[in-house]
Predict the 3D structure of the following.
Amino acid sequence: MYEYCYYYGDSYYSLPMHSLSKQLRYFGVYLLDEARSAKNRPHEHLYTRIHGVWYDFAQFDHPGGPVALNLAKDRDATALFESHHLLSNIDMGPILSKYRVPVDTAKNICTIDPRDDGAHYIWDDFHNDAFVKDLKELLRSYFGAIAKRDKSTLYQAAKATSERWAFIGILALGFVTILPWFASGHY
């Protein structure tokens, strides 16, 4: 029987640097290319579970690009899916149904970490929860004002600005610059 499970050594997790090098090898020059075509993806299947249902996104051109999809590969991605599509007005049901894995195949798929069963949160009636409704209303009012001011969409208003990315870059450069001194014991 075919079982889609794999582990790294005797552990379910890899070191961050190993993960980064794996991502670089896996996606190569396409790492930052959000418009990458599904035809050129280096994997045959990209299984992920959302709300207890398995999907194969190997042929899906996600607007977030291949890196966004790879975050969900072989995992229960319900929390990731819900958090990233919180402000979306699009009904994701028809989109997801195109990539649903047949039940016979889904029985033989498991997550990287068997403990990742999605049971840590009950997702039933999530969108009708009073807290979720309040949160969506607050986010829409906050980012809606920014979108109106900038004459952009709600989606664009919720993304980091060029100035914010420059600030993040400066902070990252500063961190990398002082890392050798910190590692050698100079605090």
